[in-house]
Amino acid sequence: MEAPAPHSPAETLPGVTAEFTVTSPEQMQELGRRLAKLLRAGDLVMLNGELGAGKTTLTRGLGEGLGVRGAVTSPTFVIARVHPSLGDGPPLVHADAYRLSGGLDEMEDLDLDVSLPDSVVVVEWGEGKVEELADDRLHVVIHRAVGDTTDEVRHVTLRGLGRRWSAVDLAVLSA
To answer: Which of 6, 77, 113, 145 could form a disulfide with 151 if both were Cys (CB 3.0 to 4.6 A apart)?
Structure first.
């Protein structure tokens, strides 16, 4: 696969990286299910990409893989949703920072820092707003063709930062 051109500051950060090409919403959801197997309580996952890129679809797969309660839908209008675990795994906290402009100060009202140690916290549009929550975090950038297109192809770049991700083999997600 040819790597997409960098589009965000997160893509220039050092760390463990894997890239994938996804050709359907079902494949995006499956990538989320596989990624869930690598996640644990305390993980911060930041999702970035154009509108309609598949951030919520990926998170839906994460929710399925983590075995949480409730339908995972876009939290755009409620800002954050908590999905408790149906088993003994961590809950999923799904937040959307798109409408928040105040950075971490505004995000603090959501108490994500309180939820983080016991949950998997996924923040859509979190770049530049929630990095201070954790030194160890996973940046997921989803690129899609923009404009008048029906192209379902997405290029997904995962970059794990910090000690937590240094030994994680993200390439196993392609299996």
So the answer is: 145
Burial class (CB in 10 A: 0-12, 13-18, 19+), 98: middle
Measured between its terminal Cα atoms, the distance across the chain in Å is 15
pLDDT averaged over every residue in the chain: 82
Beta bridge partners of 82: 93
Q: How far apart are CA 52 and CA 40, in angstroms?
A: 27
Burial grade of 61 (CB within 10 A; 0-12, 13-18, 19 or more): buried
pTM: 0.82
- Mean pLDDT score, 46-54: 92
For the chain, counts of helices (H) and of strands (E): 5, 7
Closest CA to 66 of 125, 119, 26: 119
Strand partners of residue 157: 19, 141
Q: Under DSSP, is residue 123 helix (H, G, I), strand (E, B) or coil?
A: strand
Of the candidates 134, 124, 138, 128, the one whose C-alpha atom is nearest the C-alpha of residue 170 is 138
- Tokens read off for 151: 């192209």
